[in-house]
Amino acid sequence: MPDDTATLRTDALPIVFRGGFRVFFLLAGLIALAGIGAWLAWLAIHALNGMVPEPTIAVAPHLWHGHEMLFGYAGATLAGFLTTAVPSWTGQPGTKPTTLLALSGLWLAGRVAVWFSALVPATVVAGIDLLFFPALTIWLAMMLSHDPKPRNLLFLVLTTGLFLANLMVHLEWTGLADSGAELGIRAGIALISVKIAIVGGRVTPAFTRNSLIRAGKGDRLPVVTPRLGQAAITAGLVFALLIALDAPALWSGLAAAAAAVFNAGRLSRWQGLRALHDPLTWSLHLAFLLLVVGYATIAASLLFDAVDEIAAWHFLGIGALGLMSLAIMTRIALGHTGRQLAAAPAIALAYVAIALAAVTRTFGPAVLPDDYYTPIFISGGFWIFGFALFGLIYFPILTRPRVLPETPHAQPTAP
Hints:
mainly alpha
């Protein structure tokens, strides 16, 4: 009887809670549009008359913007990936709907608390917003205990590090520290970049191999060099740590440069140019290229002051994070709902739009030095356009039952 009751409770939940990719990718798409939409609206009002309505957030808008795109958007994409992939890595059943309900509820509670932080004490906002990553980490540790492979245990470091980065932000927002918010956001972006280097380093060559073989191009396949991957991930972790510690620019810049060089070496061996026939695959290569350029841009900023530092961080945040997460979400959603692994033309356009958003936001201010707002609005427009296409095409996919695949396809997540 208890088992029947539990089954009834599970079956009563909407279908979006029957797969981590469903609920969290929907939430990621929502915050991608709402977060940037609200940010652009604030900028537009400020640009027009310098007067803004009474805010519902208690912190500087630019910090709120960075916080929500990192811990909100990136947090949702990370949770969606982990709750989908980790059960298959460890040989366990899929994540329970009740677990997904709890985790997504904590994520949503954090977003509401931060968006309306002017209405409640800062300590309450912090207490609510800081719950999500520890809960995700506990679930992850329990799952990985069934098959604790070292390369997967590294994700525990990332989720714990993201909690600590968020804690740095809230320590300043609650007045318990004089600073830390900007460092926390930057350290969080650096940690998410390590996640991209790990996940991208697994799925990009694996899915490229599958795509090339299906296309009859199996004569030259991607080559994976584990030691080069280890060096790239280590450099990324060192870079994140140095940023969190507010180390001298020379040290952080050298670490960023090393991460760029090592990841570029990996990418050069994955036969990306031979996969231009497949948007689901070339998008992964393009996203990884943006990761490399992002690290290099930050290194150029820190070492030579050649690029505005804030603009350089946006290249990692918009380009590497935005495009890699979109590329993985679109592939996972197709594979795990039994659909053919083929991107709609509009999704290929969305990939390009996110890449253009990164380039425009990073280098636009240098092209138009006397016009602060135009590059930001153009970049934001590209971002919203890309994720609007994602929402239009993938909302039905994520909210409808699985369909039977008509043809065999590659596994949507790599081990």
